[in-house]
Amino acid sequence: MSGQRLPSVTHEDGVMDKLNDGQDRADPDYWQSSMEESRLQRSRVPSHRPPVSTHPRRIVPRDPASAPRRGPSLPLHVSAKQHVIDHLQSVEAMPRDVDVSIIVVHWNVAHLLDACLRSVVDEIARSGLAADVLVVDSASPDQRYREVVERYDGIELIELDSNNGYAAGCNAGIRASDGETVLLLNPDTELLPGSLRVLFDTLHVASHIAMTAPLLLNSDGTIQSAGYRFPGVANVLFDLFPTHSRLVESPLNGRMPVGDGIQPVRIDYPLGAVMLLRREALEQTGLLDERYGMYSEEIDLARRLAEDGWTTLLAPAARVIHHGGRSTGQRPDAMHEALWTSRARYFERYATSRQRRLMAAIVDAGLRRADRAATDARRAANARIREKFREIARRR
Length: 396
What we know:
The protein is α/β, with parallel strands linked by helices. 40% of the residues lie in helices and 16% in strands. The chain is built from 13 helices and 12 strands. The strands form 2 sheets. Strands 1, 2, 3, 4, 5, 6, 7, 9, 11 and 12 form a 10-stranded mixed sheet that branches. A two-stranded antiparallel ribbon has the order 8-10. α7 runs parallel beside α12 and α12 packs antiparallel against α13. About 20% of the residues have low confidence.
């Protein structure tokens, strides 16, 4: 999938004819009831929310929310186009305050933050949505980000006292925001025209959709990432041993096809660089788990949402450039260890004991192989990763 190009899209047609989950099940009666339920839920949103301050302030991250983990258990159905259009028109007519809170979690890439915020401001104007924007800085050593934020009227800056990871930054922004939906962004992303509206409209096609994500593009416009299946043993094997590129980009490694590049596709989880989330789903399932630190928190969140009956969709007609790894690339050995430590935490929670033992053996062999050409710092990190996987393998 990586490196491929898709034809350009226009967004005049609005939301797509169907949700592509592998079946073609037009069910107007279902959609009529689903839309009516959505109207009722949206009508319960308070008609007034306190204004969001535009002055910088500090927020200390707290433990992840412990909200009840229950959500609607509705199947994914397919709609006739006219019913979707009628629903969206009814949504437009409803009273609203903040449709979407856009949260950019930043660390030490002020030169990329400017392009990100410029694309956000342009997309808000194009979308017609009521939005607020928050930049959460995770104690960046380079404080030029303040000058960048000051260039844009109405953007709130939240400065954390320490860098406790991406999840902590996201949660601080979510708690400080008021939007009905929350768009989480990496600072090295740029929203392309029409992407915000497509993500928002796709999320509101049905009340059981908790998350939508765009097609991520590399800086040169080729495909970087679509959606994924939840990871397992095969993913660990393909990551640590030489594998043909066709296998790496195949469903065997959890990769999801983008379909025709227009219709939404049901996925297990997206890359966490760009995610639009329904606040109601976050309130029921809980925020991102800050114990993950830098990686796998979006996989864990998507897994909990799925267990509670929510749906995640890739909206490939929404496209976002992701320059990729500009913050984490500044500390490669630490981020390598953080990646595999977070994976170990995820597999400890969701893999079977047999799967964990197999993963520990694969990680041990794969990282010992990698040690042959590694620096002393990387070999030390690999030793700690192997011990972490041996630890989770011993647990029942």
